[in-house]
Amino acid sequence: MKKSIEILAPASSLEGGRVALSAGADAVYIGAPKFGARAAAGVSLENIATLTREAHEVGARVYVALNTILTDEQLPEAVSLAWDLYRVGADALIIQDMGLLMEELPPIPLHASTQCHNDSNAKLRTLEALGIEQVVLPREVSTADLPILLDGVGMRVESFVHGALCVSYSGRCFISEACRGRSANRGACAQYCRMSYDLEDASGNKLLTGQHLLSLRDLNRTEIIEEMLDRGVSSLKIEGRLKDIDYVRNVTAHYRRVVDEIIDRRSEEYCRSSWGETELSFTPRPEQTFSRRFTDYNTPLHRPIPTESITPFTNKSVGEELGTLIECRGREVVLRLREGVKELNNGDGLLLVSPDEKATAGALINQVTPLRDGTYRLRLSGSVEMAPGATVYRNLNHQLDRLLRRDDASSRKVPINIECEATQQEIVLRSAVAEAPSVAVEVRRRMMLEPAQKDPSARLIDTLSKLGDTPYRVERPELRLRGLYLPPSVVTELRRELIGELREACHRAMTEERDRRGEQLLERRRDFLGRVHSREESGLPERLDFTYNVANQQAEQLYRRLGVTGEIAPAMEVAMPEGPVPVMTTRHCLLHRLGYCTREGKRPPFSLPLYLVRGQERFRITTDCRACMMTLWLDR
């Protein structure tokens, strides 16, 4: 059986979802009106209902993020919202809070958010037994880790392939809540990882100053997509529910091309999970929209990630590399473009970065003057100071940005078959989706027909093919007219009715399939929770600390059902732990970045522990060198 591959794109709004679908997304994830892990990206039920219907018309799905942790008071409201989302047609709910699994939810598939910290084979097997349809892997997992992690796991596996990277292990960042009372687990992350810090040793000596020492580059796994698919991943997730539509269109279209090339070459093994063909008026290039430079973040666990995985000089978009600064005179600069860069335009945004990556400058281009040998003189919107030799990036491509925001920048059409049959007493129109022939409809009109004076075939084919702004394109119209004359106005009316019925049939087919899967998964969960389990089976410790994010009694009861007998500490959002608190655990090691990885036997010339300092906030650093992990502590 072929493996169905899904490109999963983000949407912050109905408009964003439409853009993602037009660019080739097989599924879209979007925030619920409440309780989504991006509080600023909540979408109304009405708009989710509209997007879901439009997605179903092209065989695509809509997953709704209901993935914050919930208090006892919030849990009933979240359950009610889950039912509302089911009724408006959502295809799945993305959840984090384990308490929801103890509630009477609708028969809708559930996806385990990356915040569930899905980092072990035992955890994945437990989630599968609990009726989870799709699991989102932690970003830090590499392709080398997948065979062991996914051994014996039968549910669909989702993995991030593009966008912003959380420097913390997925689901285990508490720095925002601990310092500002803004919980990342409740959609209000203050983004401490994107802030600038000083790095001090135990004696207070400054080793680094004013750098973005926790700001990872953006993810781009273009080169390892095929390896990910071969090792068990079935859903390729693009980060970006807070990104603009230019980013969503460009990046989604890019991965559509990458995946289609793999499917075309290996059509006996892989297939698309939605229908239709996408046409673009641009060439997708991910580096030309928001990007902090790229990393594939594909280092096996328990090994040091590359020291260049962060962008210490900025937390904002860097964009595509243009070339090298030759001369700088305030508002006028000369640069040499690197090979492959074709043009510069007025309105483009530039970022200049010194060779040591300690100084930056930026401005817009006001005037472009070609010189010779690939060099250009640029008049800028403001004065900049930068020594020759700096690397020049374009973080705003003005013309491309305008193009990507046009409604016609990407379009998607689903091939359908239409058959028109006539008898002396009746006209019948039938249609089916070419890629899903079981989705078929027909309409009839009883009327007496007269013999045709001349062959009406050409005109009728033209009439049947005029589908306007519908998501469909007639692939093969068939006529069986028996020499009869069919009034074009009647055929036009029937065609409109037929397409309306087809749209409803697509929505109905997708919803019925959702319900079938949802009922099976719900029954599996009920059966599993009806039996006694040991914590060893689930890979759980005897006691759970606050990092398990238990914020309600139902979540505690679930863990008891899974065999936990010791203390279950409440989530930090419910009660702040006493004493020093581990607020972030990460693969990114600052000791390694300084060149003193203990695995290499290098003793640092400064006193430990190190501290990250920002104003009055001070975070103590510890390292677990065997596991290649760094932890930030808030000492109170």
Architecture blueprint of SSEs:
Elements: E1 3-11, H1 14-22, E2 27-31, H2 45-56, E3 61-66, H3 75-87, E4 92-95, E5 110-112, H4 121-129, E6 132-136, H5 146-149, E7 156-163, E8 168-173, H6 175-180, E9 197-200, E10 206-211, E11 218-220, H7 225-230, E12 235-238, H8 245-265, E13 270-272, E14 277-280, E15 294-295, E16 320-337, E17 349-353, E18 360-370, E19 375-384, E20 391-396, H9 398-404, E21 410-423, E22 426-433, E23 436-446, H10 457-465, E24 472-480, H11 488-529, H12 535-538, H13 553-561, E25 581-586, H14 590-593, E26 611-614, E27 617-624, E28 629-634
Compact summary:
The protein is an alpha/beta fold and 636 residues long.
Spans where pLDDT lies below 50 across 5 or more residues? none
Structural Rg: 28 Å
| End-to-end C-alpha gap | 57 Å
- Outline type: globular
Query: Helix/strand/pairing class, anyone?
Result: alpha/beta
Overall mean pLDDT stands at 95
Oligomeric description of these chains: single chain
What's the total helix number? 14
Per DSSP E runs of 2 or more residues, the count of β-strands stands at: 28
* Helicity, as a percent range: 10-25%
Strand content: 25-35%
